[in-house]
């Protein structure tokens, strides 16, 4: 028998991806899955691709239904995690895939989010300096945002090494439609999305303060773009160099920072990250260049927004919190074509 696991909000895209990964995990046993509107339905009726869990039934999302576990994943809408987590008994470890517990600054929370500020939990990005040990020792961990994960992994080593300025950082991050969740919306209909690119929440996206908090960026322009694909993120980050530097030097900083990391790969010169190469995996691809005209450092980052940007990252955190092999149950290979 493995560790007992529950998933709240398992009927959504991130919840479904969690179930897919957990079904193949050697050390984690799913004992409860909950939903709101889909409570009472079979998992197979909502997620027809999850054959091994098809006959499980979604229960109501209550503390009583989810408390008898070693670890609970919260894949709930914004604002729903804090209240549920507060009612859980001591000893239940929690990974929150939502945004309730990411920010440490109440003023930043008030500026970018609705509702009451909830205290920050341990931030769930193991590749940041010191975070792996902090996560392993934590009872409550806040999963990263999807755009934030792609951006932070591109930015953090360059600021830490002093090769890039924390001022005037510009990120353009393109995401697949699953990043908007599963709730019906006209703007996400196939006929609205296909053949179209559109920016959204320009100038006030909630991942901006998270990126600043995790990296030390002081001024950030963040532009998210919705792309006509189901999943994946491609982020392009432009930073001002502190002094004249070449692409090989920047690539070396990234390679040194992520040496030995199981899920982050700095690509060889001449190869650019591709979202399709990370689909279905917990992998991240990075590449660096220096713009010949402006001299700015350019870092491109690709990941699966439901993988390293959500469910895959959450399983990685659970492995650390339960003192398992960090890579257990997590694919590094993508799916092609």
TrEMBL record:
What does the sequence similarity comment in the record state about its family?
Belongs to the NAGSA dehydrogenase family. Type 1 subfamily.
Report the catalytic activity.
Answer: N-acetyl-L-glutamate 5-semialdehyde + phosphate + NADP(+) = N-acetyl-L-glutamyl 5-phosphate + NADPH + H(+)
Function, in words: Catalyzes the NADPH-dependent reduction of N-acetyl-5-glutamyl phosphate to yield N-acetyl-L-glutamate 5-semialdehyde.
Record keyword Membrane present: no
Q: In which pathway does it act?
A: Amino-acid biosynthesis; L-arginine biosynthesis; N(2)-acetyl-L-ornithine from L-glutamate: step 3/4
Query: Which SMART domains does the entry link to?
Result: Semialdhyde_dh
Please name the gene that encodes this protein.
argC
**What species does this protein belong to?**
Jatrophihabitans endophyticus
- Span-the-membrane segments of this chain are none
What InterPro entries does the record tag this protein with?
AGPR, AGPR_dimerisation_dom, AGPR_type-1, NAD(P)-bd_dom_sf, Semialdehyde_DH_NAD-bd
Q: Which domain of life is it from?
A: Bacteria
Active-site residue numbers: 146
GO molecular-function annotation terms?
A: N-acetyl-gamma-glutamyl-phosphate reductase activity; NAD binding; NADP+ binding
Q: Cellular location of this protein? A: Cytoplasm
* EC number(s) on file: 1.2.1.38
An example of a Pfam family matching this protein is: Semialdhyde_dh
Domain Semialdehyde dehydrogenase NAD-binding, first and last residues per copy: 4-136
Protein name stated in the entry: N-acetyl-gamma-glutamyl-phosphate reductase
Name the UniProt key words of this record, in alphabetical order: Amino-acid biosynthesis, Arginine biosynthesis, Cytoplasm, NADP, Oxidoreductase
Q: Which GO terms describe its cellular component?
A: cytoplasm
Q: What is its main location?
A: cytoplasm
What are the BP-aspect GO terms? L-arginine biosynthetic process
